[in-house]
Structure formats: structure tokens, C-alpha cells
Amino acid sequence: MRHTTFRQLEIFEAIARHGSFTRAADTLYLTQPTVSMQMRKLTDAVGAPLVEQIGKKIVLTDAGHDLALTAREIFRILDRFEMTVAERQGLARGRLRLVAITTASYFAPRLLGEFSRRYPGIEVSLRVSNREQVLASIAENLDDLYLLGQPPEEIDVVATAFMDNPLVVIAAPDHPLAGTRAISLARLAAEPWLAREEGSGTRKAIERLFAGLGIGIVPRLELGSTEAIKQAVLAGLGISAVSTQALNLHPPGQFAILEAEGFPIVRHWYAVSPSGRTPSPAARAFMDFLLEPR
Ligand code: PGA
């Protein structure tokens, strides 16, 4: 069988598929004598008949049946190989357009840097936007992937959780509740709260927790970013809850983390893409990268 060619296997597979030499010749744009000659060579190489003529019909022998399965398997493996090569070439010069919600900017550039070092040929771009703008871009299917803390409910998307996103309550280090254990939500609600803007995923998660106990919080101040929230907390203007990711670069002790009932709120970071969008090889590679344990 070593001298069998892929062409012979392809011809035989076509005969097996169509049950006819003529149709096999037609589909492969070959002449009948070529098909017959290649079949003779293949039969010699196998050392057993592959087809039988019953009336006008071509029927596979047992060996022919096995060879047809084997040929299909070989072609599947070759297809896979071809796809891998194409994908690798794609990764050598692909493009990845990423959008991160503001709070994700505390970790997204670091991940992207690591990814870029692994795939230097992929041109990456990162846009950081507020939730409203992110949702608008998803709806228009403009980018490859969106990183956010709460997948949109109003748009059809594929959302994959890739990292924990716990929310903790922060206060100035000299806050009277610092060091107190099991602070009740009612007590916490009595503090001046600094809230994110309407529509923020962080804000929604905090409101949901309080609403579960029938408690509403009236924010003392509303601020448009986690960074502004942190500055206001440090200035002693009130307390708030932020993603632990937003505290990564701060020295321990700069904020007091209050031990409150219901906190940390367990959340996740999601990579989201509009459903129906076929991911590019670069987007698939980034997704695999995000799901690596870290
Ligand atoms: P946000 O989103 O910046 O809108 O709060 C992040 C999150 O949902 O955690």
C-alpha cells in the first residue's frame, strides 16, 4: 500500500460514494480510462478486489468498504492538518480588536501585553469604554471580543466567564467601621455611599444585594469611574464597593476593606461576542489564552 497515491484513494472514495465509475470520473473531471487504470493499480496495491459488478451496479467488497472508511479518515486528518497550518498563518499576522469596560482596564492591558508577547504577529487594539458605549459596539458587531462584568441581557451574545470579579467594600483606612466584623447591610446602608453612574455593572450588583433585603441606598455622590470612586473614598467622602482588580496596584492598607454581610459579592469577568459572529483565529487564540489557569 506504500505506493498508493492520495489521488487513487480520492478516486476510489468517489466510486464508493457514487456507486459508479462514470460519476466518479465526472465529479473528478477525469476520463473513464484514467479512473479504471488508477483503480487497477489500487486493487493491485491492496491485493484484494475492492468492488464487484452486480448487474449495472458497483458494490463494495468488505475490503473496499474498509478502504473507503480508511480513505475518509485520512482525508479528515489531512483537512485538520490544513486547517492548523492556515490557522497558524492567520495567527502569524492576525488582528484582534478588543473592547474593555472601564473597570476591566485594571487588568486587560496586562493580559493583552502577555498575549502580544506570545503572538507578536497579531496586531492588537484595546478600546476602553463605559457600559453604554460597549453595548452599542456589541449591537453593531464592530469588534472581536468585549470584556465586561455583566453580559448584556438585551443583546444576543455568547458570554464566557474567564476570571473571578469579587466586589469588596472599601473605606478610608481610619473609617470607624474598619476592623469591625460582620457589619450588617442595614448598618452599611446608613453610611454615605459613593455610587457609580447609572447602568454600571458594579452599581447594579451592589443595588441587587441591598434590594434582596429590601434596603435601598441613596448615594451621597455619583461618580463615573472606579478611579474617581477610589479617590473619593480616600478623601473620606464615603464608602463604596469595587472590584478587587481595581485595588491591585495599591499598597495593602491604603484602603480599609470592610467585613460586611453579603460581601464580597461573587461575580465574574466575561468575554463576550455577538452570537453568530465566527471568531477569527486571533480571537480564538485570545479566548484560549483567557481560559488558561492563572
Ligand atoms: P462597570 O462594569 O465598570 O460598568 O461597573 C464592570 C463590572 O460590571 O464589574
CATH architecture of the domain at 165-266: 3-Layer(aba) Sandwich
Helix content percent band: 40-55%
User: What does the main sheet amount to?
Assistant: 5 strands, mixed
Q: Biggest sheet: strands side by side, in what order?
A: 4-3-5-12-6
Query: In terms of structural class, how would the helical and strand content be classed?
Result: alpha/beta
Under CATH, the homologous superfamily of the domain at 165-266 reads Periplasmic binding protein-like II
C-alpha geometry: rod-shaped
Total helices: the number is 10
Spatial extent as radius of gyration: 31 Å
Low-confidence stretches: none
Mean pLDDT: 92
Q: What percent strand?
A: 15-25%
Please provide the count of β strands: 12
Topology at a glance:
Blueprint: H1 6-18, H2 21-27, H3 32-46, E1 51-54, E2 57-60, H4 62-92, E3 95-101, H5 108-118, E4 123-129, H6 131-140, E5 145-148, E6 157-164, E7 167-171, H7 185-189, E8 193-196, H8 201-212, E9 219-223, H9 226-234, E10 240-243, E11 256-258, E12 268-274, H10 281-290
Parallel strand pairs: 3-4, 3-5, 8-9
Antiparallel strand pairs: 1-2, 5-12, 6-12, 7-10, 7-11
Helix pairs in contact: 1-2, 1-3, 1-4, 2-3
Bound molecules: 2-phosphoglycolic acid (PGA).
